[in-house]
Amino acid sequence: TAAQYFFVYNAFSFTFATMAAATVFLWLGRSQVGRAYRTALTISGLVTAIAAYHYWRIFESWGAAFEVRDGIVTVTGLAFNDAYRYVDWLLTVPLLLIELVLVMRLSRSETFTKATRLGLAAALMIVLGYPGEIADDNGTRALWGTLSTIPFLYIVYELFVGLGDAIKRQPVEARGLVKTARWITFASWGFYPIVYMVPYTSFSGAATETALQIGYTVADIVAKAGLGVLIYMIAVRKSEIEYGEAEPVAMR
Amino acid sequence: TAAQYFFVYNAFSFTFATMAAATVFLWLGRSQVGRAYRTALTISGLVTAIAAYHYWRIFESWGAAFEVRDGIVTVTGLAFNDAYRYVDWLLTVPLLLIELVLVMRLSRSETFTKATRLGLAAALMIVLGYPGEIADDNGTRALWGTLSTIPFLYIVYELFVGLGDAIKRQPVEARGLVKTARWITFASWGFYPIVYMVPYTSFSGAATETALQIGYTVADIVAKAGLGVLIYMIAVRKSEIEYGEAEPVAMR
Amino acid sequence: TAAQYFFVYNAFSFTFATMAAATVFLWLGRSQVGRAYRTALTISGLVTAIAAYHYWRIFESWGAAFEVRDGIVTVTGLAFNDAYRYVDWLLTVPLLLIELVLVMRLSRSETFTKATRLGLAAALMIVLGYPGEIADDNGTRALWGTLSTIPFLYIVYELFVGLGDAIKRQPVEARGLVKTARWITFASWGFYPIVYMVPYTSFSGAATETALQIGYTVADIVAKAGLGVLIYMIAVRKSEIEYGEAEPVAMR
Amino acid sequence: TAAQYFFVYNAFSFTFATMAAATVFLWLGRSQVGRAYRTALTISGLVTAIAAYHYWRIFESWGAAFEVRDGIVTVTGLAFNDAYRYVDWLLTVPLLLIELVLVMRLSRSETFTKATRLGLAAALMIVLGYPGEIADDNGTRALWGTLSTIPFLYIVYELFVGLGDAIKRQPVEARGLVKTARWITFASWGFYPIVYMVPYTSFSGAATETALQIGYTVADIVAKAGLGVLIYMIAVRKSEIEYGEAEPVAMR
Amino acid sequence: TAAQYFFVYNAFSFTFATMAAATVFLWLGRSQVGRAYRTALTISGLVTAIAAYHYWRIFESWGAAFEVRDGIVTVTGLAFNDAYRYVDWLLTVPLLLIELVLVMRLSRSETFTKATRLGLAAALMIVLGYPGEIADDNGTRALWGTLSTIPFLYIVYELFVGLGDAIKRQPVEARGLVKTARWITFASWGFYPIVYMVPYTSFSGAATETALQIGYTVADIVAKAGLGVLIYMIAVRKSEIEYGEAEPVAMR
Amino acid sequence: TAAQYFFVYNAFSFTFATMAAATVFLWLGRSQVGRAYRTALTISGLVTAIAAYHYWRIFESWGAAFEVRDGIVTVTGLAFNDAYRYVDWLLTVPLLLIELVLVMRLSRSETFTKATRLGLAAALMIVLGYPGEIADDNGTRALWGTLSTIPFLYIVYELFVGLGDAIKRQPVEARGLVKTARWITFASWGFYPIVYMVPYTSFSGAATETALQIGYTVADIVAKAGLGVLIYMIAVRKSEIEYGEAEPVAMR
Ligand SMILES: CC1=C(/C=C/C(C)=C/C=C/C(C)=C/C=O)C(C)(C)CCC1
Ligand SMILES: CC1=C(/C=C/C(C)=C/C=C/C(C)=C/C=O)C(C)(C)CCC1
Ligand SMILES: CC1=C(/C=C/C(C)=C/C=C/C(C)=C/C=O)C(C)(C)CCC1
Ligand SMILES: CC1=C(/C=C/C(C)=C/C=C/C(C)=C/C=O)C(C)(C)CCC1
Ligand SMILES: CC1=C(/C=C/C(C)=C/C=C/C(C)=C/C=O)C(C)(C)CCC1
Ligand SMILES: CC1=C(/C=C/C(C)=C/C=C/C(C)=C/C=O)C(C)(C)CCC1
Q: Measured between alpha carbons, how far is D240 from D225 in angstroms, rounded to an integer?
């Protein structure tokens, strides 16, 4: 229906604006943290920038796939290219895990190992999920979904057990924030498989499509912009501890 | 009528220009305040930037929904997408409250708690108001409007009671400005529910639409650009106190 | 006639270029004045930037309203949106007065009071003038014009009496320039009501339209770009006095 | 003919590229001269930027006025808007004289007086020349051309007599360049009235048009980009004298 | 089929986003490494920027060559310009080898010799491969492919034998990374000839095309963005050794 | 044929990308050389920027002049504007010689004299060559080509005899590079008259056109981007000698 069409349409526009605003915020914030944390903010901003680009394209593709005149929605025959989402995830999900690792400032080799392992697992998870997403029958969907869950569980395990030690070594003032970052990641990521299962329900086609798009969109905002802001806060706090509180000097 | 059409059209163009100008002003102003206040200005500028983006889209959508030839207005069949407004609010209203909290420079934990609580209440208020805005009958409108008023009252309460203490701790030179900021917020925000009630009147459809658009537009300018300028002034004044008056040095 | 059409067309293009050039000049100039005067230049540049934006739109609207083929002008039926002018003034006229007050560097409270009062009076003047401008009969035109003159006279009074004292306190080297700025404001502003009265004459419709457009355009250039350059000169001179002449150092 | 059409077309494209390149050069050069000379370079760059903008429009207008298919030129009925040229001059000619005065670094009051007088004379010269340019008969052309020559002669007089004294006070190393700048101004400006007289010849219409466009274009390049480069060289040389040769320091 | 069409389409969009993001990352990273390594990062970023430009064009060309309506793919008659790929390689492959040489910071003359030799060999390899790529029969394809392999083998030889010595002189902390960079280059480059041989298989035309495009695309990402990130890591690590670990200073 | 069409098409796209990349490289490089060499890099970058602009236009003009559908090339009737090339040369060839003179850092007066003489000779050479290029018969072509050769020989003479002395005064470390720059200029410039003579051959029209375009394009890349990189290398090397090797300091 037109209401559903506009709901999704506006959600895409909203997400575009959010991602763009988050990018500006994170990149302007680079000058407010110590050198060691700039890369984390660079990457957080890249994640939201890439997402803004893809939501722009999703938004355009949605507008081209349907036409609304006098409140009636018709299909134009041009496909709505849903794959932009997976294309986006393939690029941003590894980066999200890398930014999480970077902000912890582990030893060099640990950083490298964790970032590589988590990054690869994340890419695998997305690649395995895609064939299911575009499948027409629910069996195929379930099969690939299950396969995709294996790397997903590995990531969750690493986040909670593998990085648990690392979190204990964080300065006490930042530990709470890092834990929040871990939880926000866990919670928002856990939301994706749930949305993925919407087509198993007995909703109508249009309702399923709407629920899917909105669900993924909400999760994206939390997982990208939300995490980005947290990373920024952790970086600011740790900078103040490690580089010393910026003493008030006369402005220049 | 054509006069109404152009009144709204010009109001949108005006607001776009105002928001864009405010963004430039606030971001150029970042270099004139102390480090601790830069985030507040970054966010104030983001709010007006986001609003400029949305007014641009609203403006285009308005231009596409109607056609004026030889002074006669006809409907093109393309819907005027009023939802951009709520999409905008969902993003900017929490940010507005956050910028108000930031400029007070409370303790870290207080900042976090207040910002979160006020931000969430604001988002809730907007979400609850939207179903009423697009409702066709006034009963539904009233129902959601009432629900939306609950978080609204909570925000008002927090602003006046919860933050009252914080305001007392502001340096005496800035206290007046902070109070003005609080009042301007209260006054402009109180205007929204009033505009919301315009459809209860017995104006014609076109008149109602016009009043609604103009009302929300005026309120947006005060609440976003107006507050932004105030935040800028508070930040400048507090910077001078805390970082020391910038002594005149030979320019470089 | 085609000559009249092109005269106005070229005047709009000219003004767009002038305003854009003035914006670049004023914003590049920010680095050449002391900190205390940067806000004045930021705002002067915003005024010309906003004007450039509006002249761009006026120019496009003019081009869309008429078509010239083989030297013959026909009306396309799309309205020439003259209101952009008032939309522009509503935003820039208060800013112009504020930049005048800022460059004087009064005490903080005086700055605030004067800027607010003059700004509001200016906005009122524009709002009251608009209904007259779009009126079809000259009676209505005269009525609103007269109402609009009241805040106008108040502004003139404030400029000459209220700010007279402030000007006496300016450093002697800058006093002449400040007086010139006041006079240029007075002279250019006084031109607007005169242009406003053109429709009372017995010119043909096209001639009236042409005279109106050209008159307002010339006045806009003087009042915005002209004043901006003066503000820049005052800011440079006062910076040299207060911050010390920039001694020649080896360039870096 | 097509050859004439393309000759003018390519001349416009060439001039656009030259003006744009000169702008980049002059503005990048600002960091290489002393503070006192930056305004001169800012303005030189503005002059070429404004010219680039106008040549862009002239180029587009030329392309829209004619159509070439299979080597045959036809008129589209859209007028070639030659007035862009005068619009451009009205803005840039005064600026050119001002940049010449600025680079001499006279006393403040002399700078002001000379800049104002020369600027106004230049504007008057252009305004008086325009009615002749668009006149259809050669009598009118001659009349306005003669009137326009009066301020022209005044400018020449000022350049050679009025500024002669000022040139004598220039540091000896820069005096040659300043004289060259004066001569280049004189020579290129003297070219304009000659081009203006082309229509008195008995060339065909198309040949006249071509000669006119090319003539003005060549003169514009010399008078704007050529003078700009000279101003840059003077500014560099005088900076080295007054601010001291930049000693070679290890690069950072 | 539509699935194949979209697979390639999305792969191009993905690669565009990746290359653009890598460019931003590498250029922002310039400020985080010592002066001697900035050129390496400048070039790495240029490589990805050039690739982003070409993937944009490839993407557009792909979209223009086919049309998909209601899930059915038709050919539009406009050729898919595959040559953008070779055009891109001709420019970027030499640059890739140069960036590898630069990051090793050999003596000046060694740098020059190696960069020139490797660069020329790379260009030759691409030029010889192109006639085979566009050949219709597999014989011609094989012939040029074989010729192209000669410079390819020379490059491999240089990388492993010629540069082996240089790698031994790298600081021990960076040696591993440099070796990885060499291997990643070798592995990703070895992939290209394999993809080149796809048409020898007995896949259908569409399948061959798809495999070819995807294969080259994956290889491009690894060889350009992947190597770029490695270069960045080497540059950061060597900067820390040679310029001293950046000690934590209070942020400004 | 389509193959020829695409060969030229891709060569234009390649050159555009190369020139744009060279511009970025040369302008980013400005911060890596001493002050005295910045102007040389500014100009080198301007040359490639201007070339990028013209190749963009040439590319568009080529695309508009022909249409390819299903592998068959047809002429659209719009002329391919080859003159962009000469327009470009007229601007860039003098600049190329000037950048060569500048990087030698001769005495001021020598710099001025050489730059002027060589610049004028170069412009003359181009202007004289153009009538021959567009001539239909080979006689005219030969005539103008011969005339154009006179200033060409003068430039060659100046480069080898006139500047020979200057080269001997270069620091020994840079002498080789300067000689290379001279040779590269000579070799690439010598290529232009050869390409110019292609139409004397008995190739078919299309083959001639293709050879001409490709020939000039290759020469342009070497003469502009190639020389630019050399200039950059000379500037870096001479900066290190004259300003002292940049000692490794802790990065900020
Ligand atoms: C486990 C699982 C999935 C997980 C997806 C996740 C966890 C996506 C996370 C995306 C993020 C974080 C994007 C924002 O940047 C799929 C693919 C839906 C398929 C079903 C099984
Ligand atoms: C109480 C209430 C409302 C309040 C809206 C407000 C308070 C909006 C504020 C918007 C701002 C500040 C936007 C500018 O950024 C609604 C939703 C109209 C619904 C009716 C009840
Ligand atoms: C008194 C008066 C008027 C005054 C207008 C003025 C004073 C406008 C100034 C505009 C400026 C300064 C714009 C440039 O930024 C109106 C409205 C014509 C209506 C008639 C009475
Ligand atoms: C004396 C004279 C003229 C002089 C024009 C001049 C001197 C123009 C200079 C233009 C410049 C310098 C433009 C570049 O920026 C006209 C108007 C042709 C009319 C005939 C008499
Ligand atoms: C040996 C060989 C080839 C090698 C191609 C290579 C090695 C390409 C590398 C491209 C890169 C690195 C691009 C990314 O920037 C060809 C031409 C396929 C033809 C068959 C033989
Ligand atoms: C001698 C000669 C010619 C020389 C052209 C040259 C030397 C052009 C150089 C162009 C460059 C360097 C462009 C790149 O920026 C022409 C005109 C073909 C005509 C035939 C005789």
A: 23
